[in-house]
Every structure is written in C-alpha cells, then in structure tokens.
Amino acid sequence: MAQPILVAITGGTSSGKTTLTQALAEEIASLRPVVLSQDAYFRDFSEVPEGEREAVLTANRPDAVAWEALRPHLEALKRGEGVRFPAPGTRAAQRSDSPTHLGPAPVILLEGHLVLVDEGVRGLADLKVFVDCDVEVRVLRRIARDVGRAAGSIERSLAWYWRDVLPNNQRYTGLQRTYADLIIPHDRPNPLAARLLAACIRDLVQGG
Questions:
Q1: What integer is the mean pLDDT of 60-73?
Q2: Quick one: 5-205 is in which CATH superfamily?
Q3: Nearest of 118, 187, 186 to residue 197 by alpha carbon
Q4: Distance in angstroms (rounded) separating the CA atoms of residues 171 and 80
Q5: Which residue, 93, 138, 139, 150, has fewest beta-carbon neighbours within 10 Å?
Q6: How confident is the model over 68-82, as pLDDT tens digits?
C-alpha cells in the first residue's frame, strides 16, 4: 500500500467540520477511511489537582489537546499501521470508552477546531481544509446544539461561550485559516464540497 493520505479538516466552533467530514467519509466509503475526531484527544487534566482543575479546564486553547497522544497515532497510521483507541491521558480513556483498533487505511480524516494549530500535525497532513462560516451563524448553531443536549440550557451555554469559546476560538480559528490548502464555505448546506474533496483525495491516493 502506498503511504496513506492524511486530510486535516478544521474551522471555528460549529462551522460544519463534522458534517463535512461525515459526508466526505460517505463519498470515499470504498477506500474505508479512518475518521478521527480531535475531541477524542482532549486532555483529561488529571495532572492538575482536582480543586484547581475547573479554573484551567478548556476546550478551545491548544493545551486542551493531548498532542503527545494524537501525533503518534497519526504517524503510525501514515506508516500504514493500526492504532489502539482511545489513547491514554485523554478524556475518552478517562470515560472508559470501549477500546477499538483503528486502521490501517489508505485515507485518514482528522477533524477538529484546533488540529492545524500544531506544527507537527500540519507537517503530517497531505491536505489541509478550513471550513468557513460566518461567526453569527456559528454562535446560533452552537447555542442550539448545546441547549439540545441533556441538561443543556441557554444560560449554561452562554456562560461557557463567554468563559472559554469567545476569548480563544476566534484567535486560533483565524490562525489556522492561513495554513489551509482549501477553504470551504459552509454557512449553509454545501453537498458539492464533499464530492469535490472526494475527487481530490482519490487523485492523491492514486499518486496524482
């Protein structure tokens, strides 16, 4: 098997990254891609004393991600090897998510709102995609998503938005846009985007 292709898909919170990634995975289903979510590599912050953990907890700064777990997984998958998931030191492992073996596969799809912040991940990516969406649309999507979850409320959603999302997300989102090979508009459904990306990926897999 030729070296697998890594596609990194990023963008602001609620920009449509997951929706696009799922549509893309369906378009290239015959290639049996491995799909990784950055959220599964959030740190568990277990090294921080419990009484201090709430003050430093974040999902929107680079230190939220266990890069030391994510990078080796990507490197192994790009070597054509499989990986054991979830990785130690992550919230997914802390929750005792059922162990899974992922890969090998000719295509790895990695999605998350911070994935291109890390230089190591950028260096591994063969195709870097930024999902673009107006900030007002993203805020409304985010609140609707949070409130729709169990025990969700507008007050709780807004409190988290002011505390963690607003001071961090725009800064790191804008930074990642400069690293992208492709920028995909996603203010509204964009089914053509997944088809075009799928064609690009097939070309890369074939050595184009």
A1: 94
A2: P-loop containing nucleotide triphosphate hydrolases (3.40.50.300)
A3: 186
A4: 34
A5: 150
A6: 999 999 999 999 999
